[in-house]
Amino acid sequence: MIDTVLHTGSAHPDLLWILVPSFLSFVAGLGAATYADRIRTWVGRENAATAD
Fold it and tell me: What is the pTM of this model?
């Protein structure tokens, strides 16, 4: 059991600097995936407006 804890890196001195950006990137990815159709439509309208 202690081997598992040691291998998770929980004693890393900069663990917070690793976990927080990782979590924020994960949440941003979830948000982008959730609104992917809306984002594609919005980007598509931008490109269509400049093509005219």
Answer: 0.54
Q: Say whether 35 sits in a helix, a strand or coil.
A: coil
What are the tokens at 46?
A: 């931008």
Domains held by the chain: number: 1
Tokens of 18: 């690793």
The model's pLDDT over 4-14, given as tens digits with 9 standing for 90+, comes to 555 666 666 77
Domain that holds residue 21: 1-45
Question: What kind and span of H or E run contains 29?
Answer: helix 15-34
Q: How far apart are CA 2 and CA 42, in angstroms?
A: 50
In a domain? residue 31: yes
Amino acid at 9: G
SS3 content of the chain, % helix, strand, coil (to 5): 85, 0, 15
